[in-house]
Design brief:
It is a single chain. The chain has 305 residues and is mostly helical. The chain folds into 2 domains: 131 residues, Four Helix Bundle (Hemerythrin (Met), subunit A); 95 residues, Arc Repressor Mutant, subunit A, CATH 1.10.10. The protein is 65% helix and 0% strand. It contains 15 helices and no strands. The radius of gyration is 34 Å and the shape is elongated.
Length: 305
């Protein structure tokens, strides 16, 4: 939490170095963005407009900071700032100086236009930060419920809350459930050191077990010795078909050794049968041998079966 606050403070100091621009300059940049045919000129105008309004995102963040401490919310202030900056970039490219307010008939300032888009993006980010979807209007009720708790304490009757919030019993029950819900995220599962992540607790399906790794080293030597005892052509075919990184097909072997595909299959089958018999002759190592092939050479396992 302290690190988040230090990052936030440092970020605010950095963006405070960018000065706000006048309404006239914003209108001029808007005309360039929508009217210029030179890409570099447009990007330069967009960049100036964004940097001059980064503090707008911090201004909008104040409306949502209180929700970050609510149960089940797993998002930081810097996350919301990132979402707000994305919305700001969208607003810069969409804003037109000729926009007029329907209510007052006056031109819409860029700050008012951008704040609406930024707040909507932050509101959606807060909603998506929970595993259980919460309607957006619940955030406003949460704020009122927290304010009432601070003023009157937590022992408020349902009738009192329904009167103050203007809701019925059913709606109040849903608001209580969403307000008090506490959802465990996967990243909350950690070891005692506080550094482990949930992924560390899930066994890998591809990792070689330690005891099997020891057997594998022994079986590597045994397999090599047994392969050396096979005829030269059988050795080469088995190695190329099953042990090489780029396994050869029957067609490849047929072309290389000048025999039919069926003959290659017969040579491989006879060699693998011999290997199986010799591996099984190890007795108490038979099970480990099967696991060795399963881990190292699954294609060979299918052929040996």
């Amino acid at each position: 939490m302290r690190n988040d606050q230090s990052c936030y403070d440092r970020y605010v100091r950095e963006i405070s170095q960018h000065h706000r621009i006048s309404v006239e300059r914003e209108a001029e940049l808007s005309r360039i963005i929508h009217g210029s045919r030179h890409g570099r000129t447009v990007e330069k105008a967009v960049d100036e407009m964004i940097h001059a309004n980064l503090l707008l995102v911090i201004h909008c963040l104040r409306d949502f900071k209180k929700f970050l401490d609510f149960p089940g919310i797993h998002i930081t202030a810097m996350d919301l700032i990132a979402e707000g900056n994305i919305a700001l970039m969208t607003a810069v490219r969409q804003y037109d100086e000729e926009y007029v307010s329907k209510a007052s008939g006056r031109p819409v300032k860029f700050s008012a236009y951008a704040c609406g888009i930024i707040r909507n993006r932050m509101r959606r980010a807060l909603k998506m930060a929970r595993l259980i979807r919460v309607p957006e209007q619940h955030f406003a009720y949460w704020s009122k419920m927290r304010q009432l708790e601070e003023e009157h304490g937590e022992d408020m009757s349902d009738e009192f809350l329904m009167d103050k919030l203007g809701v019925g019993a059913s709606k109040l029950r849903k608001l209580r459930q969403s307000f008090e819900s506490r959802v465990s995220m996967l990243e909350d599962i950690a070891g005692e050191d506080g550094e482990s992540q949930w992924a560390d607790l899930i066994p890998s399906t591809t990792a070689v077990p330690p005891d099997c790794e020891v057997d594998c080293r022994d079986m590597n030597r045994f397999l090599q010795n047994e392969l050396d005892r096979l005829p030269d052509r059988t050795q080469q075919m088995i190695s190329q078909a099953f042990l090489d990184e780029k396994r050869a097909s029957l067609g490849d072997l047929s072309e290389q050794f000048g025999v039919s595909r069926e003959r290659c299959r017969q040579v491989l089958a006879k060699g693998l049968t011999t290997l199986r018999a010799r591996i099984e002759s190890r007795g108490d190592h038979a099970v480990n041998a099967e696991r060795y092939f399963t881990v190292k050479f699954p294609a060979c396992v299918a052929a040996l079966s």
